[in-house]
Amino acid sequence: MKATILGAGNIGMSLAQGLVESKVCKKQDITLTKRNTKELIALEKMGYQTNISNKDAVKNADAIFICVLPQQLNDLLLEIKPVINLKKQLFVSVVTGANTSVFREILNDKIRIIRAMPNTAMKVRESMTCLSAANATEDDMKMVQDIFNALGQSIIIEEELMSAATALCACGIAFFLRTIRAASQGGVEIGFHAGDALKIASQTALGAAKLLTENKTHPEEEIDKVTSPKGCTIAGLNEMEHQGLSSAMIKGIKLSSSIANNLYKSS
Containing domain of residue 172, as a range? Predict the structure, then answer.
């Protein structure tokens, strides 16, 4: 398959990696575009095709991955509209806040379009990616899931949940990183050097997540295993809850979801 990635930034390059690792494409079958043309030289040395023109880049593609900022989307779609092939080409968008209706209104109502909301953990092949679609076939969905599964895990959801997915999945990386940072700062307070505290907190967070994903258990079930009557764990948990830990996380996720829903509209 020939693929074009419009916007070869961090997400775009992770997608290129996923295309290769899922064996959907070879590097030479992937065309990348980027606003900084000097960086295209380095991408060519890596084995990819590059193009300074979005319009030219999409002409021979079987799948077109759109990885630009919300405020760049409309101009991009109008630019490529004259050369797209609706019968042949599948579109995949990671543009925050842009519903499939945007693509159908600007390009054509029959366009096959899949929305994807991954996160930056694609770089370490641990992304959580939420997918929704309009007019896509089962083969389209399988192929796109294979790509994102090569970079972590994926799940298909209703499009009305994509803003929620942005908050919990994409923004969620920052939320969990902040909790790890807070834990490491607590570690320094109780005597660890900063580097050791961060290593301990990071690995402990990784272990906690794996307990849930591999055992398929509920967090409270795993919490119960490490809390004993009058113990130090339950004392620490209760103090965190008194200080609003869960409430703050829930409120932050709700606010991020609300803003994500309006990012394209305000761009």
Answer: 165-260
